[in-house]
Specification:
By secondary structure, the chain is of the alpha/beta class. It has a single domain (5-193, 225-246), classed as NADP-dependent oxidoreductase domain (TIM Barrel), CATH 3.20.20.100. It contains 10 helices and 10 strands. The chain has helices at 26-38, 53-62, 83-97, 117-129, 143-152, 171-180, 200-209, 213-224, 235-242, 251-258, and strands at 5-7, 13-15, 19-20, 43-45, 71-76, 102-107, 133-139, 159-163, 183-187, 227-228. Helix 1 links the parallel strand 3 and strand 4. The chain is globular, with a radius of gyration of 18 Å. Bound molecules: nicotinamide-adenine-dinucleotide (NAD). Nicotinamide-adenine-dinucleotide (NAD) binds at residues 20-22, 45, 108, 139-140, 161, 187-193, 197, 212, 214, 229-232, 237, 240-241, 267. Residues 17-261 form the NADP-dependent oxidoreductase domain. The active site is at residue 50. InterPro entries: AKR, Aldo/ket_reductase_CS, NAD(P)_OxRdtase_dom_sf, NADP_OxRdtase_dom. Belongs to the aldo/keto reductase family. This is Aldo/keto reductase.
């Protein structure tokens, strides 16, 4: 594969770049994920709340690829938090995906106001012990939530999937994850495409390397060591976004992208987000 792996803290290999399917309607998911698999992507990031696990699963099934060649992530939605409800939600997701095991299962948001991400995580540990998930992880967890997990549960999460792009570079979270052996996975790695990809500094670096601004941003993530899951429904962009392993940014380019940080979120604040 053209995408190198990141070795997670439990020895499982995860492609450093995968394909995200948020906001892809279920009816389109099979076509879009098929394009991604044909373009060389071997990691797919979905979630129960995206409503497209079935279309995603169909694309995997018809791809003809061996199951072990594809790394599949899905996420437990907020309203399913709790021990028993997590076990049930997992079965539903796996059935929709048409799979008999999952590669990575994430708690989508900590929802600290519900106060049950610990019980939820214990259900994930049970699924892991039963061999139904190869790796456990979390999403949108702040260091305080990770510290609580570390003191009350036994399996360290392999990844924390957080909002991370040039406008929100998450220096403190990345340093904390590195210290704990948790891989940082970037959601909305392209800043959702809005505005960011038209920034003159990025266009200049893109011209210098004869690449696109999206490729420059993705390459910046890769050189920082982040796992990335860009999304697109446009075949040419799906292909473009994976072509980032045959060139390098120099120190000056990296510094210019890093200079774009504004500590600005596009999505909700994990400390308070409680949609269920
Ligand atoms: P993204 O940063 O990947 O941006 C996607 C958008 O950027 C596209 O819709 C398109 O408008 C534009 N784009 C993509 N490729 C382009 C290209 N080559 N040139 C120009 N424009 C391009 O945004 P995202 O979808 O929010 O995030 C990626 C994935 O992260 C999601 O699909 C989902 O899997 C995951 N995610 C997770 C969470 C979470 O809470 N865990 C939240 C948001 C997203």
């Amino acid at each position: 594969s053209k995408v190198p792996p990141i070795i997670l803290n439990n020895g499982v290999e995860m492609p450093q770049l995968g394909f995200g399917v948020w906001q892809v309607p279920d009816a389109e998911a099979e076509r879009v994920v098929t394009t991604a698999l044909e373009s060389g992507y071997r990691s797919i990031d979905t979630a129960a709340i995206y409503g497209n696990e079935e279309g995603t699963g169909k694309a995997i099934a018809v791809s003809g690829l061996p199951r072990e060649d594809i790394f599949v992530t899905t996420k437990l939605w907020n309203s399913d938090q709790g021990y028993d409800s997590t076990l049930r939600a997992f079965d539903t997701s796996l059935e929709k995906l048409g799979l008999d095991y999952l590669d990575l299962y994430l708690i989508h948001w900590p929802v600290p106001s519900r106060g049950n991400y610990i019980d939820t995580y214990k259900a994930l540990e049970k699924l892991h012990a039963d061999g139904r998930v190869r790796a456990l992880g979390v999403s949108n967890f702040l260091p305080e939530h990770l510290r609580r997990l570390a003191s009350e549960t036994s399996v360290i999460p392999t990844v924390n999937q957080i909002e991370l792009h040039p406008y929100l570079q998450q220096h403190a979270a990345r340093a904390f994850h590195a210290e704990q052996g948790i891989a940082t996975e970037a959601w909305s790695p392209l800043g959702q495409g809005r505005g960011l990809l038209e920034v003159p500094a990025l266009i200049a670096i893109a011209q210098k390397h004869n690449r696109t601004p999206a490729q420059i941003v993705l390459r910046w993530h890769v050189q920082l060591g982040n796992i990335v899951i860009p999304k697109s429904v446009t075949p040419s962009r799906i292909k473009e976004n994976i072509e980032v392993f045959d060139f390098s940014l120099d120190d000056e380019d990296l510094a210019a992208v890093s200079a774009l940080n504004e500590d600005r979120r596009l999505g909700p604040d994990p400390a308070t987000f409680d949609m269920g």
